[in-house]
Design a protein that fits this description.
The complex is a heterodimer of chains A (about 190) and B (about 350). Chain A is mainly alpha-helical and about 190 residues long. Chain A contains seven helices and two strands, in the order E-E-H-H-H-H-H-H-H. Chain A is about 75% helix and about 5% strand. In chain A, helix 1 runs antiparallel to helix 2. Chains A and B meet through helix 2 and helix 3 of A and helix 5 and helix 6 of B.
Chain lengths: ~190, ~350
């Protein structure tokens, strides 16, 4: 929707979109800062969850629905719930850390963000790498299908190697956790 | 002035429709909760050979209204040792995720309304089923946070139990749904229903591997919604009331709102995945008829949920985990292989 004020005309949707994008991105940065600066482990984990959700929303706004859903399920859902689980089991107490470390982390973080901002202002808007898919084709076959086609044709061998690695890691976890455990001996009468 | 308004509506039909849909679906879901509570109490009464609430209004229909007024005016007590912010946040997370996850559920097919093609869903996302799982998975945080923030041993145990249980059964739920995804070849919920519209493919549940998937999905669905016999997070005998021990008034009721809305979402998901959605196969193919068929199927499933609650005793916690990991998950994986093999052949 184009709004014309005579001296200044703008697209209302585009401006709203950009505004929401900036707000979500800013929230993501604030949440990431919160993870580092917060002294209570529960709140730290919650900030990390918030950060992951912001990332998922960003993916969604850039039109990558499948990645957004996977981000929510895997990172914000499965991984972070384990974090919270462990914090709850161990009892999350507030820890007093030396303030200098915090300050250093936060300042370096802010510096990195500012440098990135300057860099992106210099380079201009980024363009997506489309490969064999252009936007029309992706809209045609759907997000998940496009990723599947690309993954199982062009990148088949790296994908299978990664799955082998995961399998080895899974077997390793079972070995580590299972075989050091000795069941309590039943007392013979 | 009026021309301007009409022009605005013409240009932004989709935006306005989206807002209206969101408001209608959210308020309808919240309105369904008291009705479900009434239905559950009446049906439980029948199952246990007693009357149930029947004094307030016809058939006791005024009971949920008086109950909600009571809950609204109750004093909200927060103990001193609680983490105030998280204590308030937890019920909000539960209700919010429950309502948002219903946004992806389609309730009837496309229809024309004033020359605008629309459907009765808030969002027809391309990978809809993943989004339902993703957002309903966020609901676990509500329970964990309630347990953590209450600063109470029983609450903490309830929260931990709920997270462990829901992670375990989410696996079975996902694997069973994957069977349907392999069968349909799409992540879109509307596509899934439309695949079942004609006879050779009608009713996914009649397909052998999907039959097993249906049973698995149903069991895992009951565990996901924390309903009896899997209501371990709030087992009264062991944990007082689990994660919501310390909650009073409306905040206490919000946990139940979340639970009942999750029940509706789960029933709707089962209907879409396995029972043919809004296809009735005999009635005329109108959108209105489709909606009523869908509502009928969902309410029948809700009655089964309530029936199960009054039939089975609660199972022991270690049995629940063993049942999930050593029985349901292997069957789900084998079933997925079977379904994929049949699909390829």
């Amino acid at each position: 929707m184009l709004i014309d004020l005579g001296w200044f005309s703008f697209d209302l949707f585009q401006i709203t979109y950009d505004g929401v994008l900036l707000a979500v991105g800013g929230t993501a940065i604030l949440a990431a800062l919160g993870v580092v600066l917060c002294s209570s482990p529960i709140y730290s984990a919650l900030y990390l969850i918030g950060h992951m959700i912001c990332l998922a929303i960003l993916f969604l706004m850039y039109g990558a629905e499948f990645i957004a859903a996977v981000q929510l399920i895997v990172y914000a859902g499965a991984v972070m719930i384990l974090f919270l689980f462990i914090i709850a089991l161990l009892g999350g107490k507030k820890e007093s850390q030396s303030f200098d470390f915090h300050k250093f982390m936060a300042l370096s973080f802010i510096g990195t963000v500012l440098a990135e901002l300057a860099l992106s202002a210099r380079v201009g808007p980024t363009r997506p790498v489309t490969g064999i898919f252009d936007e029309k084709l992706i809209a045609d076959v759907g997000n998940a299908k496009a990723i599947g086609l690309e993954l199982y044709s062009k990148h088949l061998i790296p994908f299978e190697l990664a799955s082998c690695l995961l399998l080895v890691a899974g077997v390793g976890i079972i070995c580590l956790s299972k075989f050091t455990y000795k069941p309590p001996q039943r007392r013979s009468n | 002035m009026i021309d301007g308004i009409f022009q605005f509506i013409d240009e932004n039909t989709y935006l306005l429709l989206g807002i209206i849909k969101a408001v209608v679906i959210a308020s309808a879901l919240l309105g369904v909760v008291p009705l479900l509570v009434w239905l559950e109490r009446r049906l439980m009464g029948r199952f246990q050979v007693r009357l149930g609430p029947n004094r307030v209004g016809p058939y006791g229909l005024g009971q949920p209204i008086s109950d909600s007024i009571k809950l609204l005016f109750k004093e909200s007590i927060i103990q001193n040792s609680a983490d105030k912010f998280l204590f308030h946040l937890a019920p909000v997370v539960v209700v919010f995720t429950a309502i948002v996850s219903f946004a992806m559920i389609p309730m009837t097919g496309h229809f024309e309304f004033f020359d605008v093609k629309m459907g009765l869903w808030a969002a027809n996302v391309n990978s809809g089923i993943l989004f339902v799982f993703a957002i309903s998975g966020m609901g676990i945080y509500g329970m964990v946070l309630a347990g953590l923030s209450s600063n109470n041993k029983y609450s903490l145990m309830g929260g931990l139990r709920s997270s462990a249980q829901m992670i375990s059964y989410e696996l079975t739920l996902g694997l069973a749904a994957l069977c349907v995804i392999v069968h349909t070849g799409s992540l879109n919920l509307v596509d899934m229903v439309e695949r079942q519209s004609s006879w050779p493919n009608a009713l996914n549940i009649l397909n052998p591997p999907l039959m097993i998937a249906f049973v698995l999905f149903f069991i895992a669905g009951i565990a996901e919604t924390n309903r009896a016999p899997f209501d371990l997070p709030e087992a009264e005998q062991e944990l007082v009331a689990g994660f919501h021990t310390e909650y009073t008034g409306m905040k206490f009721a919000m946990f139940f709102m979340g639970e009942y809305i999750n029940m509706v979402t789960m029933s709707a998901l089962i209907t879409i995945l396995f029972l043919g959605g809004w296809n009735s196969y005999i009635l005329p193919d109108w959108a209105v008829v489709g909606f009523f068929v869908f509502a009928f199927k969902v309410s029948a499933l809700l009655c089964v949920f309530i029936w199960l609650r009054s039939t089975f005793p609660r199972i022991r916690y270690d049995r629940l985990m063993t049942f999930g990991w050593k029985f349901l998950v292997p069957i789900a994986i084998i079933n997925l292989f079977l379904g994929a093999a049949i699909r390829v052949i």
